[in-house]
Design goal:
Layout (H helix, E strand, L loop, with lengths): L1 H13 L6 H23 L1 H9 L10 H21 L3 H20 L17 H6 L5 H25 L2 H4 L13 H16 L7 H9 L6
C-alpha cells in the first residue's frame, strides 16, 4: 500500500498530461460570468453610468462614464479572451481589478456571504464565533434573525399564496450581497494569472509554440 501511494504521489507530481484541465475549467467557468456581466451593463449603459455616479442610490464614483465604459469593456472583452485562452495572464489583471472595485464599492459593507445563512446550526459563522473570530458573532446573530424572517415569509406565502408554484423553480433565500462571489472570482483569476490559459486548448499555448523557444512552452 505504501509503495502504491508513493507511486501515485510521484505520478501526480511529475506528469503534465492532464494539467491543462484546471486552467481550462477556470476559464470556462469565468468566461460566461464576465460576458454576462459586461453584456448586461452594455444593454443598459445609461443606467449603468447613472448607477456608477449617483451618490444617493449608486456607487458615487468619479468619472462615471469612463469607469462604466472600462468596466463594461473589460468584462465583455475579458470574457471572450478567457473563453478562447488568449492573453490570459494579461486580461486576468484588469478583471481582478474590477473584482476588487466591486468588493470595495458594492459588497464590502455586507460582509462575506452572498446568500445569508438562515440556519445558525449549519452556518459557517458558528464555529468561527466559538473561537472568537472577528465579526463571526454578528454574522451568527444575523443568521438567526434572517432565519426568523424567512420562516415568517414562507408561512405567509403558504397561507395566502400559491407556495408550490412560487417555489417550483427554486426556494426563497435572503440575499446578503456580500463579497463571497466576487472574492471567489478574484481567486480564480489570480490562479489563471500564474498558470496562464493552459496547454492544448488555449490560443496562448499555440501562439507560444509558434513564437517562443520550445523549452518555455
Amino acid at each position: 500500500m505504501l509503495a502504491l501511494m508513493k507511486t501515485i504521489h510521484q505520478t501526480l507530481n511529475t506528469t503534465r498530461v492532464v494539467d491543462f484541465l484546471a486552467p481550462l475549467a477556470l476559464r470556462l467557468f469565468l468566461a460566461p460570468v464576465m460576458i454576462s456581466a459586461g453584456y448586461n451593463k452594455a444593454m443598459s449603459f445609461e443606467s449603468t453610468v447613472a448607477w456608477f455616479g449617483n451618490e444617493e442610490w449608486g456607487l458615487g464614483l468619479p468619472f462615471p462614464l469612463v469607469l462604466a465604459f472600462l468596466a463594461t469593456a473589460t468584462e465583455l472583452v475579458g470574457g471572450v479572451l478567457l473563453l478562447i485562452g488568449l492573453l490570459t495572464r494579461y486580461i486576468a489583471l484588469p478583471l481582478m481589478v474590477t473584482m476588487l472595485v466591486a468588493m470595495a464599492t458594492v459588497h464590502w459593507e455586507h460582509g462575506w456571504f452572498a446568500i445569508t445563512p438562515t440556519n445558525p446550526a449549519t452556518s459557517m459563522a458558528a464555529p468561527l464565533a466559538k473561537v472568537g473570530f472577528p465579526g463571526a458573532e454578528g454574522s451568527l446573530k444575523n443568521s438567526v434573525e434572517a432565519g426568523e424572517r424567512l420562516s415568517r415569509a414562507r408561512a405567509i406565502l403558504k397561507e395566502h399564496g400559491h407556495y408550490d408554484w412560487l417555489t417550483e423553480k427554486g426556494g426563497f433565500v435572503v440575499l446578503n450581497n456580500g463579497i463571497e462571489f466576487a472574492m471567489s472570482y478574484f481567486v480564480m483569476l489570480l490562479a489563471l494569472f500564474f498558470w496562464g490559459g493552459g496547454r492544448y486548448l488555449s490560443l496562448d499555448y499555440w501562439v507560444a509554440r509558434r513564437w517562443l523557444p520550445p523549452e518555455t512552452v
